[in-house]
Structures are given as structure tokens and as C-alpha cells.
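Below is the record:
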Amino acid sequence: MTQHHAPTIDMTISGEFRDPPGRYPSLAVIALRVAAFGLMLGFAAIVFWLAVFTLPLLFVFGVAAYLYLRFQMARGKFSGGPSVLRVFRF
């Protein structure tokens, strides 16, 4: 059978720990972390806003270009070859 050993705690006779506990981060380090998190959050918000704004515009522009080309083909002013007609005729 294996014996379970409890963790060793190094203490002096007076009850103090031998190794001092870890230091807390300074105020400058905390401020730097908060600023970095804020910058990353702002960058993500800008990227999200651009995606939300740009994708519908690109969709509208694509539909407008499709309708324009269909209108030009119907009027006979668009001299596209067979490959263009194959793409735009479903």
C-alpha cells in the first residue's frame, strides 16, 4: 500500500514561515495590466464594429452590382462572353 504524505510546511519554532510569502504586484504593474486589457478590449470592439458595419454594406454593393449587370444584359449593352452569362444566369 502507498502511504499518503501530507505537504511539508517549513515553520520556525516561533510559528513564522521560513520563506516569506510571495509579494503582491505593485500598483504600476496592476495599472499596466488594466491598461493593456482596456486596449485589447477597445481593439476588439473596433474590429467588431467594422465587421458589423462593413459586411452589410458589401452585401448591398454586391446585390447592386448584380442587378446593374442584369439590367445591362437585358438592355443588350453588356457584351460579356459566355462565361459571364453562365455566372449571372441561374
Q: What stands out?
A: The chain is about 60% helix and 0% strand.
